[in-house]
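Support case: adenosine-5'-triphosphate complex. Customer-provided input:
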Amino acid sequence: MIEVRDLRKEYGGFTAVEGSSFTVDSGEVFGIIGPNGAGKTTTLKMLAGLLEPTDGTARVAGYEAGDSEMRRRLGFLPEESPLYEEMTPLSYLQFFADLYDVPDHVAEERIHDTLDELDLQHRDRQLGDMSKGMKRKVAISRSLINDPDVLIYDEPASGLDPLTTNYVIDFTSDLSQDGKTIVFSAHNLYHVESICDRVAIMNQGEIVAQGALDELREEHGTTEYHVYTTVEVQDSVQDNGRYRRVVESMDEVDATRDAAQAAGGSVVDIRTEESSLEEVFLDLAESEAET
Ligand SMILES: Nc1ncnc2c1ncn2[C@@H]1O[C@H](COP(=O)(O)OP(=O)(O)OP(=O)(O)O)[C@@H](O)[C@H]1O
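Agent response - structure generated as follows:
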């Protein structure tokens, strides 16, 4: 459904996105995660045809990004959604329905259904008087006004309280159950972890890793072995009347056992600790920053 090849964007002399390539299958939820300035927004805007790439290609639903047919099949949610403050949700959404040539009776039903699903009350209140969460829901409704196949959401839950955040994330997940293909960016690993099939981790303009979350953990994570001994061995620390040494391979576990036996003691327990996804992401971001 989405094919991105060697996508690059330069702003003046500064490279914001460098050689990104990824694909997203139909019906998949694909997350782009990374710290501030990683290049997430720039990538999403190129996908949505709102920014011209310096190099490379992005194709969505078989069309070149920016193609008018592609735009009709795409819903984009910007990170900050500028809404016309004096409009109401209903007049605002009707305005966009007209832009997309959605027939009036279809638009009316779609607007009310979506606002019902998003549990948005006060539909006649001016947007300028609404909370950030309510405005976000209106912006999400706007992204769905043309019933698009593909949704590109830039930080859909950014700056929202935890309750609204969960609501928005669950709603995004429901959209994928309805068959939409979704690409979204996030800072927060939890959002990505809870609804994404696959992710790309971006840092300083580059995709430093991508794949299913389990694959990433397996490929980039580490397993630590906590080896408990009855006697002190090299690099061990005292821990509740025993000694604990943390190592990263089975060979080192064996070496610790030998060292304990040589000192007249033994190994009494071995525990493993897998790195969390959070640690994997931080490691990837840090190792990239060092190069
Ligand atoms: N119009 C622009 N002109 C110059 N530099 C820009 C422009 N837009 C973005 N940048 C720079 O490109 C880099 C990537 O920005 P981008 O907004 O894509 O990152 P991001 O990952 O979405 O960050 P955030 O999480 O803060 O939104 C940043 O260093 C940013 O300062």
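The pocket of adenosine-5'-triphosphate is lined by residues 11, 14, 16, 34, 36-42, 79 (CB under 6 Å).

Case will auto-close in a few days if no follow-up is received.
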